[in-house]
Amino acid sequence: MSTADTIPVHPAWLPDAAFAPLGSRRVRVALGPDAADPVAATVLDEVRRATAAHGGALVTDDGPSDVVLRWEPDAPAAGFTTTRTGGVTSVVARDAVGLLHGLHALVRAGEAAFGADHPTVVDTPVAPVRMLDHWDNIDVHPVMGQVERGYAGGSIFYADGRVRDDLSRVAAYARLLGSIGINAVAINNVNVHRTEARLLTDGLSDVARVADLFRPHGVRTYLSVSFASPVVLGGLPTSDPADPDVQAWWAAAADRVYATIPDFGGFVVKADSEGQPGPFAYGRDHADGANLLARAVAPHGGTVFWRAFVYNHEQDWRDRRTDRARAAYDHFAPLDGRFDDNVVLQVKYGPMDFQTREPVSPVLAAMPRTRLAVELQVTQEYTGQQQHVCYLGPLWSQVLTFPLADGATRDVASIVAGVPGPGADAPPSGSTPTGGITAVSNVGDDEFWTGHPLAQANLYAYGRLAWDPQADPVALLDEWIGLTFPGADRRVRDTLHTLMDGSWLTYEAYTAPLGVGFMVDPGRQHYGPNVDGYEYSKWGTYHFADRDGVGVDRTVATGTGYTGQYPSPWRETYEDLATCPDELLLFFHHVPYGHVLHSGRTVIQHVYDSRADAVDVVTAWVDAWSALRGLVDDRLHARVAERLAEQVRSATEWRDQVRTYFFRKSGVPDTTGRPIH
Ligand code: BDP
Hints:
The chain has 677 residues and is α/β, with parallel strands linked by helices. It folds into 3 domains: 16-123, Chitobiase, domain 2 (2-Layer Sandwich); 129-472, Glycosidases (TIM Barrel, Alpha-Beta Barrel); 508-552 and 590-666, Alpha-d-glucuronidase, C-terminal Domain (Alpha-Beta Complex), CATH 3.90.1330. 34% of the residues lie in helices and 13% in strands. It contains 22 helices and 20 strands. An 8-stranded parallel beta barrel has the order 7-12-13-14-15-16-17-18. A 6-stranded mixed beta sheet has the order 2-1-3-5-4-6. α15 packs across α16 (473-484) and α17 (490-500) packs antiparallel against α21. It is globular. It binds beta-D-glucopyranuronic acid (BDP). Residues 148-149, 190-191, 270, 274, 309, 353-354, 381 line the site of beta-D-glucopyranuronic acid (BDP).
């Protein structure tokens, strides 16, 4: 046995001790007709395990109990209710999945679930589909490695060029996901290489093994597929959506999938983007492409998650009229109303690419007759690559609660919930989901799951916000701390809040300023600073800094016209320098260095100050964390300490490069006199 085999995998937010309040009680489970469901077995297993560890009992007859988990036909369609009367806490749900989610709600609440009596509280998930996408490759890619943008070791699904024989990590992962209400997982990279493409055909029995492990936790399995599959896998001369042979090929492929995995979720598709094949090659649009696949899975109740991340990655940086931010709207808004009911258009939260700060994508407001899902990035590609502490709950909360238009009740959460937009038909009845939320997972085969142990909080917060987008992200962080470090000294909780609550804003403060984005190093896979790294390349991610000023003019009046893609009030708010929020200023406007922000500081002084102050903040975290030695698990302590040292080094590098860059461009000194080189 190698040392790696002897290191226990960190239990994340499900350590046995977190089950003590529930497990020390008599828990009655009444499963009703769902008793044979694999999820029902999980509910029983969880209760057995908790009560065995903590001295309580599983009660399956009418005997006395302190807790009841009960099936009822008129409980809410999704989720569960909780009530406490006469000293008994009851969780009621319409199916086993609801009971599982209710059970974990009790675990999260701890002793508080067994306090004073309270009337029934209904807890239903807002997003019907709450998905994680894995950008895992089967073969190790020469540039991207095994997990594209993965920062936590290898894949939990694949090793040695195939699906792992030992999938015990997947089983443990499924349990973690089920406990926070995730109900969908796509298990391979959206960039589908030939080996992964074959999961759809030759690899189906392996996919079924994976699906068998997710199913007992209420999670359905999806595959990313290549639009070129009919050619690549089927040997057809074309993948043209209008070709009857192509349609028949997809229908037969879907039939085989569902014959093997009857509850298969569906497909995720990246088409005509960054080199992936798509309908454009045949003169068709993305509605044609998406509907082709949707019709193949529709008879089986499947869904196609079609990504709106479509842009020209061969731009001419000298041509200021082209703007990558415009691309998703330009491609997709005209297609509103043309997608089949079982297509969900998967839209990145911002118009560019998972930056630390972006405005909310205008596509979300522009397609009231299309089912939409918002896509987030839990893996920290642009937010410190799991070397840096960067708790993303506040970013996602801000996105999800963003009001889309004037006086409207529609916010991003209502899109995620599938509430029909103005002028849209009511959602068709049936089992197809009406909206959703997806995110790229940050998990790998690392002993702490996420490389940086504190990055577990991002996975946790994602699941919890997908369930309830209105939840306070700091309260969710507190919940995560309580579960992950049960019974820990008060100093642990306080220190974690000190490090994590504002860590997204701290990260933002030492990286690219005021919403301009990128400035990351292409040579280090987007890690660390390189201010001009993408400035003269084809990717469309520019800051346009020169001796006079910086920022991208995306106004209608003088720029790319991107602000015109927003409804009121946002188009006016962003168009006008006077009302554009500071944190997005350089996303929308090109301004002189002396431009005065709402904060009262000039742009250049803001750049200087924020970067210097942020490094001071991060430096202070090192001592704060060191003081916890002996109060948390030693291995975890050491891993976080090692990452914090790297965060200080990297933040310092960011500070120095960005300050120096702008000093050399502008010639404007830092009024505080701090040295610049
Ligand atoms: C970018 C990543 C790239 C992904 C792409 C996507 O750098 O690896 O393939 O997003 O979302 O952020 O498809």
